[in-house]
Amino acid sequence: MMERWRKPPRVLDIEEDPTYVEVEPDGRIFGGTKMTLDADTTERMRQGRICAKCLDPQEEAFPVNCRTCGFWMREKQAAWFAQRYRGIEVVGSRLSYGQELERLKEDRL
């Protein structure tokens, strides 16, 4: 059985974010992205159990560095998360199953 900490993150969507640019310490520049994560993944990232940079699950909360990418999780992740977290976003239809079927039927006409 897999330990809970090894549970892979669940990414629901990734899209380009033209309002943000990432500049690495070595001078490399990357275009921004907006990731939509499920609630469990988001909470694990907030708790320092998933690296905010590479999404690698961590055995302990806020290790000094991510074991995969080297991101300074203990020193920088909380601020990184606070700066980039945009809140809860509903993904998908808010209609009931029956309402969604009716909507789809109407769209076909």
Structural topology:
Elements: E1 11-23, E2 29-37, H1 39-46, H2 73-84, H3 97-108
What does this structure look like?
- The chain has 109 residues and is an alpha+beta fold.
- The protein has one domain.
- It contains three helices and two strands, in the order E-E-H-H-H.
- Strands 1-2 form a two-stranded antiparallel ribbon.
- Strand 1 and strand 2 form a beta hairpin.
- The longest helix is centred in the last third of the chain and has 12 residues.
Q: Tally the helices: what do you get?
A: 3
Residue share in helix: 25-40%
Biggest β-sheet: strands ordered side by side in the sheet: 1-2
- The helix/strand series, from N terminus to C terminus, equals EEHHH
Radius of gyration: 18 Å
Strand content: 15-25%
Q: Which structural class matches the secondary elements?
A: alpha+beta
User: Oligomeric form of this entry?
Assistant: single chain
Main sheet properties: 2 strands, antiparallel
- The dominant shape is extended
Provide the residue-averaged pLDDT. 88
In the residues, how many domains can be counted?
A: 1
**Total DSSP E strands:** 2
Spatial gap, N to C terminus: 49 Å
Low-confidence stretches: none
List keywords for this structure.
109 residues; alpha+beta; 3 helices; extended; single chain
Can you describe this structure in just a few lines?
This protein is α+β, with helices and mostly antiparallel strands and 109 residues long.
